[in-house]
């Protein structure tokens, strides 16, 4: 029996998963990695805690992926979040579902996830070649020539799992895009996703470091209302935190070509309706007429945010509650429910958690992750034009596409 050879470019989460699934099918697997060790980006995901995936049914998960959901549907159903949890449990990595649905290892250590994958791969005789940046991949007839410094490998199956261009310090330098283009693929321009937003307004600098545990952010794009919700933090030049980063995923496609800022509104108290907030403020001001309005409003938001809210509402924050005029009160309530901001750009792609863009999905077989243009070439992970919101969704793409690519590369 002739041994099937599979070479994988990149030892990140998608590459490691692909190596395990290819080796389990009997292939001889080699990973080429430019870094001195595997999983460099995986080790720092989720603040080094590693948000593995999200507790959600495949159908809803696919919907949350948006435009790339249809392409991902097959591999998501094959290798779902439940499958991923079971897989890691078999490796000795137990998981915990947080209240928000995020799934972490019970140890909250990304290194435990990385080590489990490495040990599993090694037990299946996967060969790791570190400090081996690939210079070029050329196909001649039915064979790929993988060129590194001083060496060349001739193989029949190649999986590109090099990641995107975010966090380049981890080795994600966009080489996979270059390889894909040289082999006939088109690449959607990489853009920053899951990254803080920069606003035109400068008052956010006064609130830098102030966080709100649950904020709703809304905007309108192409006649569609986009809403994200979750923890948000004000920065020296805009907004950060999960809700703002999720919003960046939608805005990033428009901002490069947009000459005018994109307007967004912040709902500081999404769990209360406008009328409920106003009634509560009326009640509090009647009960505490001598209390400063800023102290009344701290029932709804951090004190530093109160000052900005009052300023935007045309009110001094030291006005006694009993002297608060009706029109000013209504302005305050409107600002609490729809504080306006204007986004001019995102933070640089180098600071983004995820890259939006990559190898054109129309050129990849969604049932196998094999190239439709170049037989024997497969893709997995962030190198393809697929990304998800905050909460383990992008890592789930790595697991699902990696498992499918590895399995199909070995089977073919």
Describe the structure.
The chain has a six-stranded antiparallel barrel with strand order 12-15-14-13-16-17. It has a five-stranded parallel sheet with strand order 6-2-1-10-19, sandwiched between helices. The protein is elongated. The mean pLDDT is 96. The protein is an alpha+beta fold. The protein contains twelve helices and 19 strands. It has three domains: 5-190 and 355-411, FAD/NAD(P)-binding domain; 193-269 and 340-346, Elongation Factor Tu (Ef-tu), domain 3 (Beta Barrel); 282-339, Helicase, Ruva Protein, domain 3 (Orthogonal Bundle).
Determine the strand fraction and express it as a percent band: 25-35%
Q: Helix coverage percent of residues?
A: 25-40%
| Separation of the first and last Cα atoms | 14 Å
CATH fold annotation of the largest domain? FAD/NAD(P)-binding domain
Strand order of the largest sheet: 12-15-14-13-16-17
Strands, count? 19
CATH superfamily of the largest domain: FAD/NAD(P)-binding domain
Quote the average pLDDT. Answer: 96
Write out key terms for the chains shown.
Helicase, Ruva Protein, domain 3, about 400 residues, 3 domains, about 30% helix, 5-stranded parallel beta sheet, alpha+beta, 12 helices, Elongation Factor Tu (Ef-tu), domain 3, single chain, FAD/NAD(P)-binding domain
Write the layout of secondary structure elements.
Layout lengths: L4 E5 L3 H12 L3 E5 L20 E2 L3 H7 L4 H10 L2 H10 L4 E3 L4 E4 L4 H14 L3 E3 L4 E7 L2 E6 L2 E5 L1 E4 L14 H8 L4 E7 L3 E3 L11 E11 L2 E12 L2 E3 L1 H10 L10 E6 L6 H14 L5 H5 L5 H11 L12 H12 L1 E8 L7 E6 L17 E3 L13 H19 L1
Parallel strand pairs: 1-2, 1-10, 2-6, 10-19
Antiparallel strand pairs: 3-5, 4-5, 7-8, 8-9, 11-18, 12-15, 12-17, 13-14, 13-16, 14-15, 16-17
